[in-house]
Write a structure and sequence with these properties.
The structure holds two protein chains of two kinds.
Chain A lengths: L17 H13 L4 E2 L13 E3 L20 E3 L8 E3 L3 E3 L9 H14 L2 E3 L7 H6 L2 E6 L8 H6 L2 E5 L10 E3 L6 H7 L7 E3 L8 H15 L6 E6 L3 H10 L4 E5 L8 E2 H6 L4 H14 L7 E5 L5 H9 L4 E4 L1 H7 L7 H6 L24 H4 L4 H25 L13 E3 L2 H7 L16
Parallel strand pairs in A: 5-15, 6-7, 7-8, 8-11, 11-12, 12-14, 14-15
Antiparallel strand pairs in A: 1-13, 2-16, 3-4, 9-10
Helix pairs in contact in A: 2-14, 7-9, 9-15, 10-14, 11-14
Chain B lengths: L2 E3 L5 H9 L9 E5 L16 E5 L11 E7 L13 E6 L15 E4 L12 E7 L13 E6 L15 E4 L10 E4 L3 H13 L11 E5 L15
Parallel strand pairs in B: 1-2, 2-3, 3-4, 4-5, 5-6, 6-7, 7-8, 8-9
Antiparallel strand pairs in B: 9-11, 10-11
Classes of the chains: A alpha/beta, B mainly beta.
């Protein structure tokens, strides 16, 4: 009688999973780290881990189709002579002409304007198309200072001093040579076709004391008219917010690690920075400790996808949010209609993130004129406006259910947490309890 | 000639007056007395005005100047003439860090010495320093000219793009991708022109050496990783 060993299925390592193995082989073959766009793809505690409680006997709701729920927000009320008035608290985050095509930037401006909100420039400066199609345009003041000039500073509606971004706190940028068209090269004053490095630190200030003087200079140059934002990546939100306030910010923009980038090392995107959910309460705490909550406005970004996310960010204490990746999806990024072409690029709709290569089938993250022509800025702008309006309606729906006649009246007491992690990070009681980790006894 | 005494008058009034000059304005010559190290003096000039500052200034004097002629009869703090677009800024004394940072055009003359990071990320400005400059000067310099009659500190021209650097004295060390380059007749002519514009007559262009980008780091190559 022969004996057969029972079959043991092959066992793959949890540590060395297929993706990890492929990445090791890719690194060994190419000798370069993986560069890609977008934000973190790993699962992190997020707004999905919070729920609203809604109204009950102790709180009464507002009638959805009759009673007002104000969505407007004013940004820059601390020092600026001309604060920004927006109809919705959902703004468009900074994305550069260079990283994006001219048509994509135009679409973002058109969509934001239709929805009554602001859009933001990026590294590389302001284009006339963007200024022309954006009723309210925030001008980013970045370490590289590519395309920076005082005329654009004056024709902006607000100035955003970029210290960092959520996808890469502590990192600079890189626009690879294949995306450097004649126009991009001219705007950045660099030879065509070379990799353009964006510095990680500003060239003429270091630290919060210098930043205070830099902001004084920007205010003097613009005659104290423009709101000045300071954007930080989600690293040390309590101290970064406090220092931004100390430096004289009108608005603090706080970007968590789900926030996107045009191009950065995957290792950076996935391993540096904190989830958006973990950033908000410390920042709000800093504002409250300084007596500046609602006086210095807080804009939160990084992984905002729906009106529910907006409502949750506001309930945790933000005044507004910003969207980047979601806005690109709304105008057509990663659309399944280009699936055949995504396949040719070795990817699939929904996973395409090689934005730095300039081959975007949707014509958004490219400088190739033929690809860029695929995006109709008018139709794409309309899609973005629709999406912004839906998100605003969704946030209103939730706010009314919580009995709030203004979105920013949402408060932490309206929320409960589904997981211990989310409870700890957002300082929101675990559902069915009055406790969160770090708060007294269980 | 309007005179602003910054020991009596708020800074805002000076900068506001400089920004509200209409076309054909008569008073285009300003004098600033008692600057006492104020920051952001005469910033955002957007007209062909002349500003004489009698004393030393703090950060960002003449920042983003576009067409003005600003003379500091004293020394200047960090970031003097940062992001200048056009015009002339002259510092009779010394300048602190980041002089002429990211400047796009115009001429910055420093008659004394300049500290570290002089001409950092320069994008078209011409800078002439009669004395010496500190470390990391012209870091990531994109275009324009940096002329140094004295010595240069460590890591001159690190990660340089197309800015042209001329140093008459010693260079403590060159930064990544910065090399000495041949001085051609066109470079000597440009150098002579810049020295003349800066009013420097006691040195000759032939006494300088030229430095520029080796262009080896223009596109990423893993075999150059040690250079970063």
């Amino acid at each position: 009688m022969s004996y057969h060993n029972p079959f043991t299925p092959p066992r793959k390592s949890a540590t060395f999973d297929d993706y990890t193995l492929a990445e090791i082989r890719r690194a060994a073959a190419t000798g370069i780290y993986d560069i890609r766009g977008a934000g973190t793809k790993r699962k992190v505690p997020h707004f999905d881990d919070l729920l609203f409680l809604g109204a009950s006997i102790s709180r009464y709701p507002l009638e959805g189709y009759r009673e007002k729920c104000d969505t407007s927000v004013v940004l820059g009320t601390r020092f600026a002579k001309k604060p920004i008035h927006l109809k919705t608290p959902i703004t468009i985050a900074g994305m550069s002409f260079g990283a994006l095509s001219g048509n994509a930037k135009e679409a973002l401006g058109r969509g934001a304007t239709l929805a009554g909100t602001s859009t933001t420039t990026g590294d590389g400066g302001m284009t006339d198309e963007e200024r022309g199609h954006s009723q309210t345009l925030v001008y980013q003041y970045l370490p590289s200072r590519y395309g920076m000039n005082p005329k654009d500073l004056r024709r902006a509606d607000a100035i955003e001093v970029v210290v960092g971004q959520g996808a890469k706190p502590g990192g600079g940028g890189m626009l690879l040579g294949q995306k450097i068209s004649d126009r991009v090269a001219h705007m950045r004053n660099l030879p065509k076709g070379i990799d353009q490095r964006s510095a990680c630190r500003h060239p003429d200030w270091t630290g919060p004391d210098d930043l205070e003087i830099k902001i004084l200079e920007l205010r003097e140059i613009t005659d104290w008219e423009k709101p000045i934002y300071i954007k930080v990546g989600g690293a040390r939100p309590y101290y970064d917010t406090a220092l931004a306030v100390k430096a004289g910010a009108d608005v603090v923009v706080l970007d968590g690690m789900q926030g996107g980038t045009a191009a950065t090392q995957d290792v950076f995107i996935e391993n540096v920075g904190m989830p958006t959910l973990a950033c908000i309460r410390p920042a709000v705490q800093a504002l409250q400790d300084l007596g500046m909550h609602r006086k210095v406005q807080l804009i939160v970004s990084g992984g905002i996808r729906s009106g529910a996310d907006v409502a949750k960010a506001l309930a945790l204490g933000a005044d507004a949010v910003a969207i980047g990746t979601a806005a690109l999806v709304a105008i057509g990024d990663n659309d399944p209609k280009w699936e055949e072409e995504y396949q040719k690029l070795g990817t699939t709709a929904g996973a395409y993130d090689d934005w730095h290569e300039g081959k975007d089938p949707a014509g958004i993250t490219t400088q190739d004129p033929e690809l860029a022509a695929r995006l109709d800025p008018v139709a794409a702008g309309r899609r973005l406006a629709n999406y912004l309006k839906v998100m605003t309606l969704e946030a209103q729906t939730i706010a009314r259910a919580c009995g709030k006649n203004k979105l920013t009246n949402l408060e932490p007491e309206d929320l409960c947490a589904l997981t211990m992690e989310a409870a700890a990070m957002a300082q929101i009681p675990l559902a069915g309890t009055s406790w969160y980790p770090g708060k007294g006894s269980f | 000639m309007p005179v602003f005494d910054l020991s009596q008058t708020p800074l805002r009034e000076l900068n506001s007056a400089l920004h509200t000059l209409g076309a054909g304005a008569n008073d285009t010559e300003f004098e600033v007395i008692n600057p006492r190290g104020h920051h952001a003096v005469a910033v955002g000039i957007d007209a062909p005005v002349t500003v004489e500052i009698k004393g030393s200034v703090g950060y960002y004097c003449a920042g983003m100047n576009d067409g003005g002629t600003v003379t500091v009869h004293g020394s200047a703090g960090p970031g003097v003439a940062e992001n200048m677009m056009s015009g002339t800024v002259v510092i009779e004394g010394d300048a602190s860090q980041y002089a002429g940072a990211t400047g796009r055009g115009g001429l910055l003359v420093i008659k004394g010495n300049a500290a570290s990071r002089c001409g950092i990320s320069m994008k078209g400005i011409d800078i002439v320093v009669q004395g010496s400059i500190g470390h990391m000067s012209a870091f990531m310099g994109q275009s324009g000219h940096l002329v140094v009659c004295g010595d240069a500190g460590e890591a001159l021209g690190d990660s340089l793009y197309e800015a042209k650097l001329f140093v008459r004295g010693t260079v403590k060390s060159l930064g990544a991708d910065c090399i000495e380059k041949q001085m051609k007749p066109k470079h000597l002519a440009k150098l002579a022109e810049l020295l003349e514009q800066a009013g420097i007559t006691d040195v000759k262009p032939e006494e300088f050496k030229r430095y520029g980008s080796a262009r080896k780091l223009y596109n990423f190559n893993i075999d150059n990783a040690d250079a970063y």
